[in-house]
Amino acid sequence: MNTSSRLLALSVLLAPATLRAAEPLSPAEFFGALGGVLGQVVEAQKEAVKKPKDEWWKPLKEREAALQELHAHVDPSVLQIERGSGKGTGFIVDASGVMMTCAHVIGDAKEVTVQSDSVSARKAKVVAVAPERDIAILQIEGERKDWPALPFGDASAIRRADMVVAYGNALGMGIGMNSGQVQRCDSAVSNAYANCIQTSTSIQPGDSGGPVVNIKGEVVGMNQSIPAQGRDVSFSVKSDVLQAALAQYRKDGELADYGIEASYQLIRDDDGKGVGLWVAGAPQGSALRRFDVIAAIDGAALPKQDPFGAFKKALAKKGKGDKVALSVIHQEPQRDGSMKQTPEELEVPLQKLPKRQSAAAPPPILRFR
Questions:
Q1: Which CATH number fits domain 258-352: 2.30.42.10, 3.40.50.1010, 1.10.10.60, 2.60.120.200?
Q2: Alpha-carbon torsion 177, 179, 183, 186, what sign?
Q3: If pLDDT is split at 50, 70 and 90, which confidence band does 355 have?
Q4: Confidence (pTM)
């Protein structure tokens, strides 16, 4: 199409209806008409800026309404915990009044006080504690059997950028909430606190033990700690670890830590990063020997990124009378300085480990909340 044809087509579109039956516009007339139309468009845009649509805020209002519904669902199940002058948070996981919180919130207490805006102050008995996992289970005293319990979410379904809402008793000022996103799904911040969820929720002293819920109001984690340096980053115990602890309590009536009595060390590469796990020492008669390399547990290979965290997580799901299948490589030093390696498959019964008297102190890179 040549220039004249294009001008003819555009002139038909731009010209008023009274002119469309007349002769085509000349180039000067065409560009004059075009300028007029563009001017009208610009003026319309300016007017739109001056007077935004009446409903521009509706998406925000819908998000606000959804958060308010979520809060109405979750809030009745979250309680403040008081232990002397100490403050913390817990949440109900069973209609009989069973609660979960962090072991470091409870300390050595045998009984605490729980309350909320809708629940008057009452006693709750500490019925089980697992300091190694920083988990404690409480039983609210009284005859009530219709407590609003929170359901657990699927830890394996957690993805980066998922929206989460953290509940807690920040600074002892009452139950509140703040939202954020999942930053990492398995944040192995240390050997002592492996396999946490890392989120952008900002938690304060008193928030420890509070639930972290997804958009369905399901518990996907429990507030635990923050970095010693930094803001708007927090770590929470994953829901699968919490569920395993609750199942163990219901089965055995306690939260004993079961494992393999031995000491372990990371195998490090030239950059000092852990890439494997070996046995630094084991008692006489143990199925494990010094220098053994643990390659897999229950058929799952230990990842190079965090072998000790994966090993602890697998053991945390076990209980009384359980065994684990270990794939190990026995290593025996030879006179010439070499190491003889012999692969072997072991089935090792778990032992009840000695219980520490109080919750583990946080690693130097963390602060409890």
A1: 2.30.42.10
A2: positive
A3: low
A4: 0.70
